[in-house]
Write a structure and sequence with these properties.
eight-stranded parallel beta barrel, 8 strands, alpha/beta
């Protein structure tokens, strides 16, 4: 399987230098990450929302080594929220944040990440939107869930992400499928050991369906993070069986992947949210997109051969 190899490469400084120096890389990266700053991304936001889509915005950059970098990450999100307020798009655009970017891995990181993310959540609520805490590798999840629980005391609309490939996720889903919760379910895109996660695609897919059934039958608001046509069809069937209306769940897909499907689902009346990343520190995000789907890797390699 190429996915684990690519994920390992994402942690290699040598591979980072090689990929980022390749002349064709930026052209390919632009497919997934359409800008580096707020000014770059505003036209994308305006275009997608005009097409009937909603968005969740991710400022990329997880390799935080100092508190100052974590403060800068906080400020980048606050600048985005200020711009969304001017555009009157708070109801259509939310934020996704990785707590590692807010200093979670530093000394005293749990408290630092909570202190940094709280003003972002407060600012988002003030313009009528919210924040979803992205899941990262399994060693960070207890801290993420604790911060999620703390934030929900004042901002109950704060969402979180769970990953189907982890053994713990079925229990997490049962706990989270409560009234008022917002939970995005994804397959998972980090290299995890066999002791904590399913390794085979068919096992992950079956776990995804089990967890999704729990969320659909619960009282919260499920967010289906998948590009897999079969899982999308299963999600629609599970929603129907659970008696859910179209505004009681949503689909989420990545910017640059299956864009026509985004529009098709929105045209059918579904809530369709596009996960849109931007920023300069794009390497880790980009490599996970390659690892998730072989077609993404083939696209990148073909481009390097034809353009290099």
């Amino acid at each position: 399987m190429l996915g684990p190899v690519i994920l390992a490469a994402s942690r290699s400084d040598r591979m980072r230098r090689l990929v980022t120096a390749a002349p064709v890389t930026k052209q390919v990266v632009d497919r997934f990450i359409p800008g580096e700053g707020v000014d770059d991304i505003v036209p994308i936001i305006e275009d997608l929302t005009a097409r009937g889509l909603q968005l969740t915005m991710d400022v990329v950059g997880e390799d935080i080594t100092t508190p100052e970098q974590a403060y800068a990450a906080r400020d980048a999100y606050l600048a985005l929220i200020d711009r969304l307020a001017l555009l009157n798009l708070g109801e259509k655009v939310e934020m996704s944040v990785k707590l590692s970017m807010f200093g979670q891995a530093l000394d005293g990181g749990h408290e630092l990440a909570l202190a940094n993310v709280r003003p972002v959540v407060e600012a988002a609520a003030a313009i009528g939107t919210t924040v979803t805490l992205d899941a990262e590798d399994h060693t960070t999840l207890d801290s993420m869930f604790a911060i999620h629980e703390e934030l929900r005391k004042d901002f109950p609309q704060t969402g979180c992400v769970i990953q189907a490939y982890l053994f713990r996720t079925e229990a997490d889903a049962r706990r989270l499928a409560a009234a008022g919760s917002r939970v995005r379910l994804v397959k998972g895109a980090y290299k995890e050991p066999a002791e904590v996660a399913y390794q085979q695609k068919h096992e992950i897919d079956k776990a995804y369906v089990r967890v999704l059934r729990t969320l659909m039958e619960g009282e919260g608001y499920p967010m289906i993070g998948s590009h897999d046509p079969r899982l999308i069809a299963i999600a629609q069937e599970l929603a129907h069986r659970a008696g859910r209306k179209l505004d009681e769940y949503e689909f989420q897909m990545l910017y640059g992947i299956r864009s026509e499907e985004h529009l098709r689902l929105a045209a059918e009346g579904h809530r369709m949210r596009v996960y849109t990343a931007y920023g300069t520190d794009w390497y880790g995000y980009f490599m996970r997109r390659l690892a998730e789907k072989p077609a993404n890797l083939r696209f990148f390699l073909r481009s390097m051969v034809s353009k290099g």
